Amino acid sequence: MSEVRALARDIFIYDLQDFDTLLGALVLTAGMTNANLYAIVNIIIDVSPPPGHFILQDDNGETAAKDTQPLLPGAYFSWPMQTADAPQVRVSRSRTRMQAFKDQVRERDGRCEFELREGFEAAHIFPLAFQQQWNTECWDQRITILPSQSSPGRSINSVQNGLLLRSDVQQLFDTYNFSIKPDDSYKIICFQRNKKNIAGTFLDARLLNDPRRPLAILLQWHFRQAVLTNMKGAGEPCFKHDFPPGEDMMGEIRNGPKAAERMEFELFDRLADYIDSEKQIDSDAEEDGKYGNVSERG
């Protein structure tokens, strides 16, 4: 339920000119700084003068410095500002089945980015199910490393849009329980209580030094979605993702929160998997045909 995201919040953002208006709230986790709070608030509000020109005061009336000091719990008041009706995508669950995408991410990372254990997955930063949004917003123009010839070929499957994560960590990433802030040395920002000991840590320098590293602008997109998902109102619902064999997954979805949206997502997610599988089969068949022709000529 959405109330799960709202539990244990200890940072509250108000309009300085209207103390009764709660603009957003979040859970304070390890590694959060005053500067991080300014960046987060800048996402959930629309300020005039231009974005970034606002101040935060604590509940003692003192202006909060925009520095790297640890963030303290409490109420903060923003001025000047207006609430932003920022566009937000639905919480997603990546179901990566494109073998070429997996292989490229694993070959680059060589391990889970956060923990070296079995059961890790190649996760899309920008979810595969949102292919239409990817196309509409021209994200393909940001990609400089296209998928390999054995891949279905869509730019969303570029290694630059992937991270290797342990499967349980991947679920937290897909549901925006944590994100990565590329303009703060690629720090891990957790928006829920830190259960994996990753809050306040950083991406490995070896990954960041690799020319195939994830694009900073895609990580920034994911961070923005995480802020909107966790801070606005009660937050997006926390959906169940692990369905044991034999469990009625569709029934669980129909009886759960945002049933229509989740059913739509599952439909498009499965459809994307099917289309990619068909393209992979066609590509393999074409390659087999080429080799067959060479053999016949010999």
Q: What is the terminal separation in angstroms?
A: 64 Å
Strand order of the largest sheet: 2-1-5-4
**Helix coverage percent of residues?**
25-40%
* Average of the residue pLDDT scores: 77
Count up the domains.
2
**Broad structural category:** alpha+beta
Number of strands: 10
* N to C succession of SSEs: HEEHEEEEHEHEHEEHHHH
The stretches of 5 or more residues where confidence is low (pLDDT under 50) are: 234-245, 294-298
Question: What is the overall shape?
Answer: elongated
Major sheet summary line:
4 strands, mixed
Strand content: 15-25%
Counting H and I runs of at least 4 residues, what is the number of helices? Answer: 9
Q: From the alpha-carbon coordinates, what is the Rg to the nearest angstrom?
A: 21 Å
Quick description:
This protein is of the alpha+beta class and 298 residues long. It has helices at residues 2-6, 34-44, 99-109, 131-136, 167-174, 205-208, 216-231, 249-254, 259-297, and strands at 11-15, 18-26, 45-46, 55-58, 74-79, 82-83, 120-124, 162-166, 178-181, 187-190.
Topology of helices and strands:
Layout: H1 2-6, E1 11-15, E2 18-26, H2 34-44, E3 45-46, E4 55-58, E5 74-79, E6 82-83, H3 99-109, E7 120-124, H4 131-136, E8 162-166, H5 167-174, E9 178-181, E10 187-190, H6 205-208, H7 216-231, H8 249-254, H9 259-297
Parallel strand pairs: 1-5
Antiparallel strand pairs: 1-2, 3-6, 4-5, 7-8, 9-10
Pfam families: DUF7881, HNH_2
Domain DUF7881: 9-77
Protein name: HNH nuclease domain-containing protein
